[in-house]
Amino acid sequence: MRRAFSAATIVAALALAVSACGGGDAGTAAPAQSAATDPSKISGEITWWDTVRPDSEGPTFQALIKEFQAKYPNIKVKYVNVPSDQAQNQFQTAAQAGTGAPDVIRSEVAWTSQFASLGYLQPLDGSRAVENESDFLAGPLSSTKYNGKTYAVPQVTDTLALIYNKRILAEAGHEKAPATVEELKQAALDVKEKTGVNGLALNVDSYFLLPFMYGEGGDLLDVQNKKITVNSPANVKAMASVADLVTSGAAPKPAIQDSYANAMTALKDGKAAMIYNGPWALSEIYQGKEFKDKENLGIAPVPAGSVKAGAPTGGWNLAIYAGSKNIDASYEFVRFMSTPEAQAKVAKEISLLPTRVSAYDNPDVQANKDVAVFKPIMETATARPWIPEGGQLFQPLLEGYQSLVGGKTTPEDMLKKVDDQYRGIFKDWS
User: Fold this and answer.
1) Which end of the chain has fewer CB atoms surrounding its CB within 10 Å, N or C?
2) How far from chain centre, in Å, is Cα 148?
3) Distances in Å between the alpha carbon of 384 and those of 258, 313, 314, 333?
4) Neighbours of 253 (CB within 10 A)
5) Could you tell me if 120 and 111 are in contact, meaning their C-beta atoms sit under 8 angstroms apart?
6) What pLDDT does residue 30 have?
7) Residues 6+ apart with CB under 8 A from 281
8) What is the pLDDT of residue 25?
């Protein structure tokens, strides 16, 4: 789950949350339409905004589109790849204007309730888009709900793990992945000393800070009690650990811009031994020269802090624009793309984790070692808040992370500033 939330995104989100007129209000969106008696007779053209990497992941989804169009020859699918760091803002802008929005969007789990609260998504309860709802994993399914209604279908789920180069770690005297943040620091220092390679490449992205926070027992919010908890002693300790990884030399000072691409390149080229990343990254990592032999890639749970090993819950949903002129065709497309068979194909080819229980019984899924490693990590991942403001939490945290690793702020001052920004979003929270 690649994330890079721009300042424009957060400003647009706040503005749209106030005006929210393009798609109507979430309580008045058109009810789910009935599908035609014979779905194969449905016709029309739909546009799908996809957010995967076009080179390593895109071909699998385009192949599924061809399968769909063979089954539904009267439905034409226009495939548009929109970078994941731009899709949220672009969809909001188009939906607000009432023109240019796609019929179907691949929506990050944190965006779904926000889009629904603004009235931009079609309710799906009772439609053909939602097939055998009881087969979906509870965690991913919960991200599709808003005010008791269903506004999306879970496509893939994910979390974070420690991904590492087995050969380099072994050369540094480590046959196993580090299990704690303290061990992570020592292993990274040993790699640097004994091999000359950087031990850990940090990704300066808000999502990648969460394991450190969760590991110390911290969090961003206490939703049930409407409390902002980001500025806590637990999180101060977590941010001090992150800063120490850089100042100690366990991780080189990361680039503020393009840090995701830089960390991935360092791992693929053997210039860094370890990174934090998720299953979506594997298809790209295997293209690197260090992992032509896939057995050289190690995957382990994120190192634990003093409280636990805490990876965040992520993933992507398929949602339908409330203003779509081809609702029935969109229902069929969302249903097809979220079937156990489609999810099994995605898991087999690019190791993205299914959201359906039955998909894990598929022999192709069971044969994928990467899915087998990630599945138990995902099952114990820490839930994020599925609230309309969820997509607005990352930009303040990102700015703080950039200042922290850039040596421009302390953990205490960083979190105080993030807390202040959160209070501008949650005005009635304590």
Assistant:
1) C
2) 23
3) 25, 6, 8, 28
4) 12
5) no
6) 45
7) 163, 264
8) 45
Residue 17 has pLDDT above 70, yes or no: no
Instruction: List all residues 6 or more positions away from 385 whose beta carbon is below 8 Å from its beta carbon.
Output: 220, 221, 223
Amino acid at site 310: G
Cβ pair 273, 168 in contact under 8 A: yes
Give the span between the Cα atoms of 273 and 187, in whole angstroms. 9
Average pLDDT over residues 159-178: 98
Rg of the chain on CA atoms, in Å: 21
Neighbouring residues of 166: CB distance < 8 A, sequence distance ≥ 6? 295, 296, 297, 298
Q: How far apart are CA 392 and CA 18, in angstroms?
A: 14
Report which of 346, 411, 371, 335 is spatially closest to residue 59, judged by C-alpha positions.
346
Report residue 180 as tokens: 């704690």
Q: Taking the CB of residue 167, how many other CB atoms lie within 10 A of it?
A: 17
Structure tokens at 39: 């779905």
What six digits make up the tokens of 85? Answer: 């760091």
Instruction: Write phi, then psi, for 104 (nearest 5 degrees).
Output: -130, 135
CA angle 413, 381, 121 (to 5 degrees): 90
| DSSP category for residue 157 | E
pLDDT tens-digit map of 310-364: 999 999 999 999 999 999 999 999 999 999 999 999 999 999 999 999 999 999 9
